[in-house]
Amino acid sequence: MVATKFLLAVLLFCTIPAMNSSMRIGVYGLGRFGSFWARELVKHGFTVVGYGRSAKQAPEGVVLGTEDEVLTCDVLFFCVSISAFAQVLQNTASRIGPSTLVMDTCSVKLYPAKKMRELLPSCVRTIATHPMFGPDSGKDGVAGLPMVLCPVNCPKKDFQFWVDEFKNWKLQVIEMTCDQHDREAAWSQGITHFIGRTLSELNLQDTKLATTGYRTLMSIVEQTCNDPLQLFYDLQRYNPYARQMRMGLKGSLDTVMQVLKEQEKIV
Ligand SMILES: O=C(O)C(=O)C[C@]1(C(=O)O)C=C[C@@H](O)C=C1
Questions:
Q1: I want to staple 61 with a disulfide (CB 3.0 to 4.6 A). Which of 22, 42, 158, 248 is the partner?
Q2: CA geometry: angle at 123 spanning 12 and 7, to 5°?
Q3: DSSP bridge pairs for 76
Q4: Which atom of ligand 1 sits closest to the CA of residue 131?
Q5: ipTM of the shown complex
Q6: What does the alpha-carbon distance between residue 123 and residue 135 come to, in Å, rounded to a whole number?
Q7: How is residue 31 annotated by DSSP?
Q8: Using a 6 Å cutoff on CB, does residue 166 contact ligand 1?
Q9: Could you tell which of 83, 111, 227, 239 is best to mutate to test the pocket of ligand 1, judged by most ligand atoms within 8 Å of the CB?
Q10: What does pTM read for this prediction?
């Protein structure tokens, strides 16, 4: 029994093709981010097959495929919302090719990595990724933008292939653990979306008196609220460090309010 399992593992390892630029890449999910990501992969020379539940038209240069075609590509990027990820993976796991390398692109990392470990057979190679940009920030090209890669269940050489590939795109590739990512992202992307959504509650208006700082503030509201509301909820719910960030922010607001109250006594 053990010998059979060993033989199967060796056989599978030997049949896994090496990573190269002529691989077929599957993009599962052709929403705002998925369509953008599929086009980026095409721009960088890959053959891309895309699948979206309600996609009628393929993004430029992308071939629209069936769900099973996408799931059995050499490499598969899931571009679905964080809150849909577990269900999508559960529904597709048994149809993913044994030699397909799977990457998620969620904006949090501990949660999808845990789901990939739980739901995919151990022979399926997985990398957790976070392209820290999207259709707005990457509209004039992705060079210089940060891209996080966290190894989950992946041989070093395949992981390195993608590090080098994204470096060739001139992305600023950052290798870190999923925990490090979530801890830091809560205090960078998480806090930005929290402030953007909070300020949008105030319904701030454009004004002739707008200073440069005010314009920057308005652009934060615009950029964060241009993303689906679901992304905001998911960033706050699925990052285990987000609550701590929100409490920290609330504490700082209270401190500043208190300081100003003290100042009022002086006047
Ligand atoms: O450029 C955009 O369209 C984005 O909204 C990108 C943005 C962000 O700036 O927060 C949104 C989601 C991704 O996780 C990474 C970055």
A1: 42
A2: 40
A3: 26, 102
A4: 15
A5: 0.97
A6: 33
A7: S
A8: no
A9: 227
A10: 0.92
